[in-house]
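Design a sequence for this backbone.
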């Protein structure tokens, strides 16, 4: 297999990233704290000296997760504007229409989410 020289840095970075993840996971497994079985006082939840109320596994409202996902979705949209902002003169009218299409799709998604009541916290 004869790879062009331009692929070598990419493969090197991918190898370093995979190696880092593997070493981190193995290190956490072997060097991390071991959980003991049983219901001892040491394994109970503790919050700044305040007595525990309820179970830590109480489910959250789906609104929290939905808001987080929507934030990430619309926040990542902003990242895609950077290449256009840097090169908007070279893109010309065709690039402008592509960005308008991109924004229109996200506005449709935003209005859909709004009409479905995902942003209404009173429900």
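Sequence:
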């Amino acid at each position: 297999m004869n790879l062009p020289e331009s692929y070598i840095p990419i493969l090197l970075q991918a190898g370093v990233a995979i190696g880092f993840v593997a070493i981190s996971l193995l290190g956490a497994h072997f060097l991390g704290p071991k959980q003991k079985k049983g219901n001892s006082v040491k394994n109970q939840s503790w919050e700044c000296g305040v007595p525990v109320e309820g179970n830590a596994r109480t489910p959250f409202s789906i609104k929290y997760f939905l808001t987080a996902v929507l934030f990430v979705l619309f926040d990542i949209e902003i990242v895609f504007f950077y290449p256009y902002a840097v090169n908007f003169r070279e893109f010309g009218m065709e690039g402008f229409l592509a960005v308008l299409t991109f924004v229109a799709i996200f506005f449709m998604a935003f209005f859909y989410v709004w009409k479905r009541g995902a942003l209404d916290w009173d429900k």
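Residues 81-115 form the longest helix (35 residues).
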